[in-house]
């Protein structure tokens, strides 16, 4: 079952697309959008997680602007929107979703955060500001190591296991930033894996964008993601 719900935040109401599995769930995944909003692709990802037994929620991180979604051809319009969403706003929004989940009986310790593109940066940010998460997964998140909202210097606060996926040909996350992320997480003692995929660029796992989608690397990244989540957030019988 899927539905839109409204969650109150300190900055006003926020729509959240929610997908529920057939049986009541005691574990959840918060899915964080690309730069284009909670569009059909992100909604589809919530359904995929629900099919695997997770309660999946995708908060509308654009709720402060009145804009809901943008087309994939509206990259120029998306950039200032995601540029305006810094660590405090991300923490506010994900914290509100976690409060909602707690009200449903699902604590942060049974919740993972999975983000894509801008949402990857948001997922990493959440891991640095919100303690006690079960796991974090970052799909090609630019702006973690450099940029106005870089939070790599806060990596010492991360206490959740982290999995990162990066395309070797992704111009938004150059090799020096990939190495910097790995080095900082290692020095911080973070339980993490970072995988770099050959013949893959930005958004390589987005099957809604055929010109960017790379089935081989995408399948491998998803297989690793599911195994990672099942390891750190196992289903309870």
UniProtKB/TrEMBL annotation:
Q: What is the protein's species of origin?
A: Actinomadura violacea
Q: Which GO terms describe its molecular function?
A: hydrolase activity
- What name does the UniProt record give this protein? Dienelactone hydrolase family protein
- Name all Dienelactone hydrolase domain ranges: 15-232
For this UniProt record, the keywords arranged alphabetically read as follows: Hydrolase
Listed InterPro entries: AB_hydrolase_fold, Dienelactn_hydro, Dienelactone_hydrolase-like
The record ties this protein, via PANTHER family, to: ALPHA_BETA-HYDROLASES SUPERFAMILY PROTEIN (PTHR46623:SF6), CARBOXYMETHYLENEBUTENOLIDASE-RELATED (PTHR46623)
SUPFAM superfamilies registered for this protein in UniProt: alpha/beta-Hydrolases
């Amino acid at each position: 079952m899927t539905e839109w719900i409204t969650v109150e935040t300190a900055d006003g109401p926020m729509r959240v697309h929610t997908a529920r599995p057939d049986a009541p769930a005691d574990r959840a995944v918060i899915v964080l959008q690309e730069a284009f909003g909670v569009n059909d692709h992100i909604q589809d990802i919530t359904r995929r997680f629900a099919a695997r037994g997770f309660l999946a929620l995708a908060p509308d991180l654009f709720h402060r602007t009145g804009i809901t979604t943008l087309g994939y051809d509206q990259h120029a319009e998306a950039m200032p929107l995601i540029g305006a969403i810094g660590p405090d706003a991300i923490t506010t929004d994900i914290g509100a979703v976690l409060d909602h989940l707690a009200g449903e009986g699902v604590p942060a310790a049974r919740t993972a955060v999975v983000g894509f593109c801008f949402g990857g940066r948001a997922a990493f940010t959440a891991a640095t500001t919100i303690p006690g998460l079960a796991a974090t997964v970052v799909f090609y998140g630019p702006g973690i190591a450099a940029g106005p909202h870089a939070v790599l210097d806060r990596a010492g606060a991360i206490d959740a296991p982290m999995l990162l996926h990066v395309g070797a040909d992704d111009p938004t996350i150059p090799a020096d930033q990939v190495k910097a992320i790995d080095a900082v997480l290692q020095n911080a003692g973070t339980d993490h894996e970072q995988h770099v995929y050959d013949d893959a660029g930005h958004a390589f796992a987005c099957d809604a964008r055929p010109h960017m989608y790379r089935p081989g690397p995408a399948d491998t990244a998803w297989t690793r993601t599911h195994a990672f989540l099942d390891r750190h957030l196992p289903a309870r019988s």
